[in-house]
């Protein structure tokens, strides 16, 4: 038996679980990332020992030393995924194996401990199972946050010798304001998200920390999100603060920036590409510059633009603001292609339509 199968999860149920009526109240309209379930999963890694002390336990604060490596050298990675409750009551995850693969890739880039994909999946399923009463029905879902951080206490620039992997969860509704058919974005010409050779393809907290000043700037301009351009020429569109981006042209083709190490390889992005091609659409992973975006929107060559990610799923972009002014995409709302792809994707995620790709993973 290999080490992955030998690792056993000790289950210590929360001694004071949230009553069912309070869970029901909190599920009515939970703010994104504010309401959390009763439990968490933790696993520790120590150099020379590997992964050990796997626990499903009551959610609680961590006790860490002031010299904890993550506080000084930012060795931290995470994933974002969701659990859904179908109309038949079954609980499912969407392509969790891809999250497990990306988590390993992020760990490798950040010189962190390698977590086997089977252990990642077992940990996620364990939390979903014990906190399944927190999974909303309807359009809601349970957002899952697996993460890992360097827990060794030392001051010295090197990879840590100790790590903690953890999974927490929170019930969520829409990421953007309910009832909003399209969002407004701000194009950042001063700040960049990532550069070649950097950590752009890793899902690490540092990428998001660096993006917050641009997101704050976007909010000050009355925008919902920020769009980043490339670091070298400040010309080529890369991605939003936490989402990938697609463009729908007048000939029905889709285009999206290519993955070259500076863009996070989104699982929703990959799913949209495969789903669109399955629907007979042509998808081109090619560079697209900001001036072409503006000109194509004005001429009508560009019909729709949408962002995609685990939290926002598929969200139309209706208006673009930048230092030189603003422009509108199409009629400023959600286009037909965006609506179609969103309906197909969410339909599969929630078990309402057939899944020809075997993407849906049921939790026993």
TrEMBL record:
The keyword Amino-acid biosynthesis applies. It comes from the Bacteria. Its EC number is 2.6.1.42. It catalyses: L-valine + 2-oxoglutarate = 3-methyl-2-oxobutanoate + L-glutamate; L-isoleucine + 2-oxoglutarate = (S)-3-methyl-2-oxopentanoate + L-glutamate; L-leucine + 2-oxoglutarate = 4-methyl-2-oxopentanoate + L-glutamate. Keywords: Amino-acid biosynthesis, Aminotransferase, Branched-chain amino acid biosynthesis, Pyridoxal phosphate, Transferase. The keyword Transferase applies. Belongs to the class-IV pyridoxal-phosphate-dependent aminotransferase family. This is Branched-chain-amino-acid aminotransferase. It comes from Comamonas guangdongensis.
């Amino acid at each position: 038996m290999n080490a992955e199968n030998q690792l056993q999860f000790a289950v210590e149920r929360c001694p004071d679980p949230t009553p069912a009526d309070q869970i029901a109240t909190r599920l009515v309209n939970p703010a994104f990332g504010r309401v959390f379930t009763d439990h968490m999963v933790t696993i520790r890694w120590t150099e020379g020992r590997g992964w050990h002390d796997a626990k499903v336990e009551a959610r609680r604060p961590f006790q860490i030393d002031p010299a904890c490596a993550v506080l000084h050298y930012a060795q931290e990675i995470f994933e974002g995924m969701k659990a859904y409750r179908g109309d038949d009551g079954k609980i499912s995850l969407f392509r969790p194996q891809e999250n497990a693969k990306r988590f390993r890739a992020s760990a490798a880039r950040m010189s962190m401990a390698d977590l086997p994909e089977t252990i990642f999946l077992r940990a996620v399923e364990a939390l979903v199972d014990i906190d399944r009463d927190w999974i909303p029905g309807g359009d809601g879902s349970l957002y899952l946050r697996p993460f890992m951080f360097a827990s060794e206490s030392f001051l010295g620039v090197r990879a840590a010798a100790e790590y903690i992997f953890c999974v927490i969860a929170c019930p969520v509704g829409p990421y953007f304001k309910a009832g909003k058919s399209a969002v407004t974005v701000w194009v950042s010409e001063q700040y960049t998200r990532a550069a070649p050779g950097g950590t752009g393809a890793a899902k690490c907290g540092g990428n998001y920390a660096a993006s917050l000043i641009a997101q704050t700037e976007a909010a000050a301009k009355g925008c919902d999100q920020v769009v980043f351009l490339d670091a070298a020429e400040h010309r080529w569109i890369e991605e939003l603060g936490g989402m990938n981006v697609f463009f729908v042209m007048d000939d029905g083709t889709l285009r999206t920036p290519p993955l070259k190490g500076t863009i996070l390889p989104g699982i929703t992005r990959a799913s949209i590409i495969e789903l669109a091609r399955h629907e007979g659409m042509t998808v081109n992973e090619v560079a697209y510059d900001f001036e072409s975006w503006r000109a194509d929107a004005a001429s009508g060559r560009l019909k729709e633009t949408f962002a995609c990610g685990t939290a926002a799923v598929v969200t139309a972009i209706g208006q673009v603001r930048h230092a030189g002014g603003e422009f509108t995409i199409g009629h400023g709302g959600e286009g037909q292609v965006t609506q179609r792809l969103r309906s197909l994707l969410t339909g599969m995620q929630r078990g309402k339509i057939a899944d020809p790709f075997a993407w849906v993973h049921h939790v026993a």
